[in-house]
Every structure is written in C-alpha cells, then in structure tokens.
Automatic annotation (TrEMBL):
DNA damage in keyword set: no
Cited Pfam families: Abhydrolase_1
Organism: Chryseobacterium indicum
Signal peptide: 1-21
InterPro entries found in the cross-reference section: AB_hydrolase_1 (IPR000073), AB_hydrolase_fold (IPR029058), AB_hydrolase_sf (IPR050266), Epox_hydrolase-like (IPR000639)
Stated name of the protein: Alpha/beta hydrolase
Record bears the keyword Hydrolase: yes
Classification via SUPFAM superfamilies: alpha/beta-Hydrolases
Domain AB hydrolase-1: 68-217
GO molecular function, one term: hydrolase activity
Keywords linked to the UniProt accession: Hydrolase, Signal
Amino acid sequence: MKYCKNIFIALILIVSTSLLFSQVKPLDAELTNYQYPFEVHFLNFTSQKNDLKMAYMDVQPTKSNGKVIMLLHGKNFNGAYWERTAKDLSDKGFRVIIPDQIGFGKSSKPQSYQFSFSQLAENTKAILDKLKIDKIIVLGHSMGGMIATRFTLQYPEKVEKLIFENPIGLEDYKTFAAYQTIDQAYQSELKNTAEIYKNYQLKFYYDNKWKAEYQPWLDLIAGWTVHPDYPKVAWNAALTSDMIYNQPVCYEFKNIKVSTLLIIGTRDRTAIGKDRAPKELQPKMGQYQELGKKTQQQIVGSKLVEIENVGHLPHIEVYHKFWNALYEFIK
C-alpha cells in the first residue's frame, strides 16, 4: 500500500512538471514575440565593433511634474516587470524611462562583448542623451542596483536621487565563493529549465509561497530555455555573471554623494556564487537584514527602509509597502 502511494505521488510530480513545461511559451533571444506593457523604442549604436540595439520604454505622464525617473532591472528580469511601478509613477506626474540593458530583454545579445558596469552605464547614458534628459532619479533593483551605483559615480551631475531595491553587490562575492570560468558558467546556464528557475525564485524571492502574479516573471526567462535561441541568451548570462563576480561596487558606496534610499526586504538571501562557497561560509552570504544597515552607514545621509519578512522582489511581493517607501522619498 505504501509502495503504491509513493508511485502515485511520483506520478503527480511528473505530471506537474510536464504541465509546467507545456505552459511555457518559447521566446526568442530578443523577445520579438512578447509584448511589453508600453511602447518600445530602440537606440541603435556601435560598441566594441558590435552593431547593437538597446530597447527602452519612455512612459509619459498625463500631467508632468517636471521630474524623470529611470528604472533599472535585475539580472533575471527585463523592463516589463516595472509595469505597475511605472503606471503609478506616471499617474503622479513622473516621466519614466525603462531600459533593457544590452544582453537582456528585447536588447541585442552580442556574442563577443566585454560586459562591464561602466559600459552598461555609458550605454544607459546614451539613451538619456538621445532623449535630451539632463537630470534624473535612478532606481535600481538587484543587478540594476550595481548599474545604478556605477551610473551615479560615473555621471553624478545627472543624478538627483538614487534608490536601491534589494540590490546585489552589497558584498564582495569573491571573498566567499570560488571563481568559475565563463565557459563553466555557460554550461551551467544551459542546464536551466522552468522548474529550476521556479525553485530558485521560491527560495530567494517568495519564501516557498507561489502566487499567480509571480508567473509572468518566471515565464519570461523560462520561455528562453525552450527556444533554439537559448544558447545566445545563456552566453550573455554567463558573461554578466562574470561581471557581477569580478566587478564589486561595495567598496565605492562611500563615494556616493547624492540623496539615497535603500529599500530592503530582509528575508532576501540572494548571493552570487553561494553554491561555490565553502559550506561554513554559505549561511553568511546574502544576509540582507545586515547588509542593508551596513550599506546605509557607508552612504552619508542615506535612508534605509526595511520591509520585514520580504524577499528579493519587494515591488512584486509587497507592492504597496514598496510604493509607499519609494513615493515618500521622491514626491
């Protein structure tokens, strides 16, 4: 009887996994078959001998308050997940610029490109130059926080205020985790599936509680894994993982001089390379309830809003708490 019960449970798991895969819509490298929430524009430019196009959304307010805010996405995301934030900002009079970084979303996936935060910051500035925008508020989530740091330090005259939302890079991952080559990272990326991504998100983003509103942000990256273009995407993912590991920004927070807000979900334990760190060090990585406070102390005059029992994605998991902290800072 027990044996039959185990077989039944195993069959349920197999069927559930099959359904998960069957529901994933294949997405090409530049998401041409996926519609973003706002009109998409492209900046065409040449960089490192590559002819590239960088996608961005430019959301205009009905009644402008004269301010512009730029929203920078994380590594496992693209600009689309800012939809609700952008709508509310626009309703409050803000013009909202939402880029897809090169290597992400609807932007080009170059196969020969030296990714650096300085390069991504320069690419991002090129969009603002095209739009003739001189002053902005910058909000960066996850990897977007690292880009926001570099952008602010590289172009301080352009940044009015800076907001971090659970940024990665609050610690130097090289001091914990062993190095992996880009080729090794690429092979690891090629193994990703919808199930692997979902398990990762449940662990770090949502505390093993899945809701229907989380599904679109899983489908966007899972869709790549079932399309013939996936090796292109996986290669860019490997290159950007190497960038995150080898280009820490945590030593430069002390140089930030603009008004800064940190919005930190304290349950977050995201850390690059955690699986490659010694077992005794792994629990010490990604301790956001400590890293938020440490980072605030490094940025003179900065403000910290901690959201208890929230993971890596406050603007998805507990939107109203995220929004209240954001709007109070920029209104």
